[in-house]
Amino acid sequence: MELNIFTIGASLIGAVLLTWLILRFFFGTRKAAQGEMGDGEQRATITVKGGYSPDVVTMRAGVSIVLNFDRKETGECTSHVVFGDLGLDAMLPGNTATEVRLPALKAGDYPFACGMNMVHGLLHVEGEGEGDAVGAATVSGASGADFAAAQAREAEERRAEIRDLTRLVALGTVLTLPVFAGMMLHMVDHMLVPDWLINPWLQAVLITPVMFYCGAPIHRVGFPALQHRSPDMNSLVSLGTSAAYLYSLLVCIAPWLLPEGSREPYFESVGVVITLVLVGRLLETKAREGTGKAVQALIGLRPRTAHRLPASHDETATVASDWLDPHAYTDVDIDEVRPDDLIVVRAGERIPTDGVVVAGEAQVDESMITGESQPVGKAEGEALTGATITLKGNLLMRATQVGGDTVLSQIVAMVARAQATKAPVQRMADSIARVFVPAVFIIAVWTFAIWFAIGPDPALAHALVTAVSVLIIACPCALGLATPLSVTAATGVGATNGVLVTSAKALENARRIGTVVFDKTGTITRGVADADSTDWSRPSYERDPIKPGSKEAVAALRAAGIRTVMLSGDKADVAAHIAREVGIDTVIAQVKPDGKAYWIEKLQQEPHDGLVAMVGDGINDAPALAQADLGLAIGTGTDVAMQSADVTLMSGDLRGVIRTINLSQATMRNIRQNLGWAFGYNVIGIPIAAGVLYPFTGWLLSPMIAGLAMALSSVCLVLNANRLNLAHPSAETVTGRRAADTAESAKPSGDGPHVIIDERTTLTTDNTSHNTNHKENTMEMNHMHMHHAAPTDGETATDPVCGMTVAVNADAITREHDGRTYYFCGEHCAKNFDKAPQLFLEQ
Questions:
Q1: What DSSP assignment string belongs to 220-243?
Q2: Ion transport among the record's keywords (predicted)?
């Protein structure tokens, strides 16, 4: 081709101008909509159709917020709205308005996105007002019981979408196949195909319904997303197929307007691309059902009926009578059960709700809650968990928690909140995804310009094919889905294995644990007081038996090079004896009730590899759980400990710590695979579509091949994330980690644990394990190096989370609650206070 200076100059000038317009359009200042005040709250309506309109909403701090999401479309992409910072995932049914209620928030930015992390919006809160706990956010489907109903609605909408997509794929295939087959055979040998089959007008007649009817679900989202400046995969496909369709139509109507060698239509590419994209969406929609199947399975365990004794019966008389007589009880819907109702549970049945045994004995399978397959014996006075199974024996129980207050409902709600959060690793992918589509537009513009200016004949045809291929092969969804899909699957797997993770951040960080700090009583041991304790108000736990699994858990951690520490209020010899029996590296004995958080802080400061995790079960463990890099609460402990922790181990077996680490390892491995695929696919695919191989091979990527690759890219991610459902996190060994040769901190000195006596002003160490003749090594503590130390003068306050003394000054970290100011030693404590201030204030 002879180079034309005028063509080259015009192409370059046009590309520069379009690049400037694209950048200005997508990254220019966006006008925010102001919320409206009324009845003590502020409201705004956000239309959901190919994006959020408006996509930036401004609200006042300190006033509760109601966002009305009016969704005017169906499909997977915008079926959820996720506020990652608030841990809120709200389902938005198709063609329905859904109210999302948020508490009074502090000033700041609160981004939200669709469930596929492709459509983004921003809630901007400004002003001086203080906010409440973010946990107060509510929406239809926020509680555990309502979440089940929301899941059912979502499943029905997904089934409807699958039916619609199946019909569109079938129609697209029928109309596209003759055009595609005719063009392919014509390329092989034009004598094999009659002229009428490759007539451009016949192709136009067949492909036009594919473009506008079959492609409607794509265009209805793609073009509005462009208008909202939040373009996604649908936008790229809509633009690419529209360009190819209009070019082909021009070939039919006015071919003389095109250069001699550029008069071939591309109707077959339009039909194939749209049909393949619909096939990909169909496969993805079916596959995405699997990522949440663990939680859906938990929801499905909820019994629908209960055998209830009449309320008129006296409990003593009822228990004494034959309560197993079928005539003594009636079957009622589970939603009719109320607290204090007497329920009969027969062998082989699921326990309908949470309660306590009134009469009878049975073996109960609690594996769906704890992940442990060993049956548990239940007798009078012992607690029962709804949805667990009675294997042998019959029970009469009194209901204590029903509906959304049951353990099962709370597990489902906790998993839902965890799935709504974002892992730190996702931030990079999100940052790239926000500029990805504009970058693809710019690449497509320059690809067209370069091919048109200096490409071989037919230049226009080559320019169109390469530009369209760039638009179609790009898949921003892969970047957006890489982490959320894995987190969704992993949190569900954790829940079915007795590991409840409260956030994606905790799921990511668990693999980086370098030190595990255990509370002793009730965590390593059973928490059974000595029978001969002389003072009932100060029981002794010297003969407290060790829990099954404690020794195995500690051994597995040490084998992986993880340091183990035990905090105990017992005397040094008692604590050291327990530590030696379990295999603990370091013991801190005679710890004061308020001293656990202090020692955690002393450990966030020592030089060591990895994060510090705290495992505890009591109300006095809550500050330490909040202070640690990662808090793990024993599920058999108190609610306040569970609320303060990042992870809850439902069974109480410390081998759950091993499961947590292994689940984190498996999840991050899966996320890395997804991110590697997402980045690799786009980094390799886009240049190939742009034609970088042409100078070496003479080969250009067909838009049809680009469409196939794009359609399968997200499907591959979904299928890979679903592999996590096959994972069974080991509770025996820490996988993927080996003890470092230099991990001296994970080895006890001498022949027993390293013992430190908590005197708060001196540290007394003892390496002779459990021996009363200590060799003491006293070190003066330097409070000046502690950022929470009390100042020498001036007013001070107590951190309500960790109990540390902090200075009251202009630089202090504070939070407002119920008209009072609270002071904190650091942001970590302040953020944990934000989650549930009442838990710390009630102590």
A1: HHHHHHHHTT---HHHHHHHHHHH
A2: yes
